[in-house]
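W.,

You were right to be curious about this one. When I first looked at the sequence I had no strong expectations either way, so I just let the prediction run and decided to look at it fresh. Below is the sequence, 100 residues in total, followed by the output.
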Amino acid sequence: MLIKLVIVFLLLFILFNLFRALYLMVSNTQENKPMSFYLGRRVIYSVFVVLLILCSALFGLIPLNSTPLLIEHTQIQTNTTIQHQQNANTKQPLEKQSVV
């Protein structure tokens, strides 16, 4: 659970750096740190998050979803309706025709 909280915190920090760089890009003020500083920080923390997820999955700290390629799936027919014979003749049989 702690690993998941750390990952969520890092993702929020990545978003914060992304929006900080956006603010510097659209504003006219010159601050002491350029926009590329925040974008570079975002990339470094993104790499760190990916490595943290891979390492924690490798050591079994977080479970990953299984791949569908490894699971053999057998399909079972659950249809219980009775099949009727198909007929292309649209004329009703004699016993169903009205004699008017």
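Here's what jumped out at me. Helices lie at 2-26, 35-58. And, maybe more interesting for your project: The two ends are 80 Å apart (CA to CA).

Coffee later to discuss?

I.
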